[in-house]
What does this fold into?
Amino acid sequence: MFEAAEVGHRIDRETFEAALPALRVSLLEAQWAVHSKKAFPVIVVIAGVDGAGKGETVNALNEWMDPRHIRTVAFDTPTEEEAQRPRMWRYWQALPARGQIGLLFGSWYTDPIVDRVYRRSGKAALALAVERINRFERMLADDGALILKFWFHLSKDAQRARLEAIDRDPRHTWRVTRADWKQFEHYDRYYAVSEQVLRETSTGYAPWQVVEGADERYRHLTVGTLLHDALRKHLGATRRRRPPAATSTAPLVAPLDAVTVLGRLDLTRALGERKYERELARWQNELARLSQGKGFGKRATVVAFEGMDAAGKGGAIRRLTGALDARQYRVVPIGAPNEEERAYPYLWRFWRHLPRRGRMTIYDRSWYGRVLVERIEGLCSEADWMRAYGEINEFEEELVDGGGLICKFWLQISPEEQLRRFEEREQTGFKHHKITAEDWRNRTRWPLYQQAAADMIERTSTRLAPWTLVEAEDKHWARIKVLKTLVERLREAL
Amino acid sequence: MFEAAEVGHRIDRETFEAALPALRVSLLEAQWAVHSKKAFPVIVVIAGVDGAGKGETVNALNEWMDPRHIRTVAFDTPTEEEAQRPRMWRYWQALPARGQIGLLFGSWYTDPIVDRVYRRSGKAALALAVERINRFERMLADDGALILKFWFHLSKDAQRARLEAIDRDPRHTWRVTRADWKQFEHYDRYYAVSEQVLRETSTGYAPWQVVEGADERYRHLTVGTLLHDALRKHLGATRRRRPPAATSTAPLVAPLDAVTVLGRLDLTRALGERKYERELARWQNELARLSQGKGFGKRATVVAFEGMDAAGKGGAIRRLTGALDARQYRVVPIGAPNEEERAYPYLWRFWRHLPRRGRMTIYDRSWYGRVLVERIEGLCSEADWMRAYGEINEFEEELVDGGGLICKFWLQISPEEQLRRFEEREQTGFKHHKITAEDWRNRTRWPLYQQAAADMIERTSTRLAPWTLVEAEDKHWARIKVLKTLVERLREAL
It folds into this structure.
């Protein structure tokens, strides 16, 4: 893949200066079109060998375009906040919003490549990392992003010469460090590993462009032109966008008899007052004990609650937080996304609130809204929610890999019980605010929601992040089951 | 102040259990009223001696109310990200939005008190810290916040007994550390310093409530009742809110002859093409050199641009960023605040983007919008923008104190030049998007904007953060003046 970038591409000053003004105007116009329509996010990955002029070219792009709508981010050693969260967290935080251009140095490619070069990881680990990168970029592309990846290449001789030249230049010595020279010793291995990674991650939706780094004018003009052409093409494609193509997700088939895993739950399960109080004390104490132990500090715990309106999510959450120290947890209620959140892929706002190790985030409704309310109410396209099953599994896998523990609860009630609770709420002073017209409307779509929930459970109950189905007709039973399950999952994990 | 909290307040179980159900319902209703109307933010500061049950009471509040709209934050040793920014940065990040309740452990009171107890700071430093706290809380209150501050107190004997008891209880030993016992040795001094700080910061808009911590039931019920009463009272006051009272800010008086500091600028200043190119290269090189030096890494640089539409802010910014490495700076364009930003005090979104040390944030329009566009277009009340002068000075003082450097540029052009540029933009392909109907409308209010700018400069040009007035009729002159000023400020500071 790198051979074509070792041929000594050059552009002379005259050609460069003749081409530049028109390119700048076109680039600016294309950037403006993307920005003014908030058309899509532009993700530009900048990678390659040291000394190949990555920084200079990024500076040129910032100079040629409007820097107010560019976000340049350089990833270095993870900060403390970053190290406490899953590996991908900091990349999610750095994603550009729709209408913005993100120039990312040292992206999600750095660790997999460097780990393999220094033999800190094996072949299988690299293959897995590549697989995950492809799925991540696929998700971004499916969400509409334009993804460009530039690899700045130098032949071994050229790199040596470049490092020496920078070393000699007194204005630049700060740029070449001992680490750079150290890394140069591994040139051949670095070459082999990155070539493999590039080959395996150069996809139709996120292709790599290898750019020879030796000549500054060639490098600048090549990157500028490729970026411009890609912006134009993507703007055109977005305008003409057909209804999204059928995805590669297996189709959903509703069972003929309409019996789902939810219908099989035994909703008569209940607990009497006295037994409930005893069990509540027991499991809350146990949860308190676990949350104060050392093991808890090593895991980031994520708890998600889903269920029909009035299924008792709030009550269950309060019994759970009642056992914890308020400094350890955060409850995040999920409603319709706000303005800012809508400018990012839908998982962005959940990444944002992920707990650090030693903390717990409790989501009252969650990322599963995509395959429940958004599916039923038509808030996103079928292709969007169909691919969400896979994206969600991927997301949860990342969490668990990053030291997380996930508990997901579906609270099941019957339509009759929901009606009873709605009416009760309307009559109880401080609860009447809990019932809105929307709740009554959603109620009419009960079977659709039930089918969506059954599909969701089938597709996203994984070994790493299983669903717990909770018989919630009796609040006591439900609350104890939630507490007990959480305690058991924690015990197992810590 | 603490004597009344050493009398041995107790509440027996019966009284407690009789009072609790009604209190919980009332608290929940009050919380709901605040939340559903997004009425105001509720800021609850939790402080006091170790072992006085702060954590337990916060847990009780979370249990009694809806934890989904409560944000509990405990401040510990600053993280790396926090340490790189001004002292108040992390508190701004933790402020609750309108409709939320923030329970803050270890607030802005901790450092001033602890530093004085351990004699790391003198009397004057403490006095200054107190003064700043009062101004900060005043700002929050003026913005509509309800501020409650609870000090959990224990007599010396009671604290010793409490620490020993916790120490003995196997379930709780994790809570008492050697540091707690070490701190106990300083009880008397801690008592004296905190009494002074409490006295001097207990204001009408943010009063302290000292709560005796020995008896859990007394503590819980007292805090719950005080919180409930304050919520109710503030809800009432907000509903009846008169037009905001005259502020304590000195009134603005327009000069009779309408001559302002802006009118005195010599707009004929200009630079020929050749001289401009030479100067540009010179100052950009100098800026590049400074930004690569060691001193730069120790300062957080903030640059703000203001000026009428088409004054050349964008062009000046690009000449400035052209000299920098894209990884060092971020350009933040400021428009109307979004949904999320509107839920916080207006300075919140500027705090949010503050650079860490070694970085530069360039604001294209800034926090001065409050006293310019918001004033002229009536987007906030007169009292709001009148008090903003003081709040802004305070904000900039915090930045400089926290290792920051601030450069503020006002770019001045004549109305005739603006008209010429508007027309030129409308005719130039890739610039036509820069002109909107709003620009034409704002133009009709030229004298009002000029007067507002003059008032702003008079009130906010301080020694720490002076305004630089830039004659911008000639773009060359303006760009060089901006670069040169920034270089000189940096040189002086580094």
Notes: Chain A touches chain B through 50 residues (CB under 8 Å). The beta strands of chain A are 42-48, 70-74, 101-105, 146-153, 208-212, 300-307, 329-333, 360-364, 404-412, 467-471. The domain at 273-493 of chain A is CATH 3.40.50.300 (Rossmann fold).
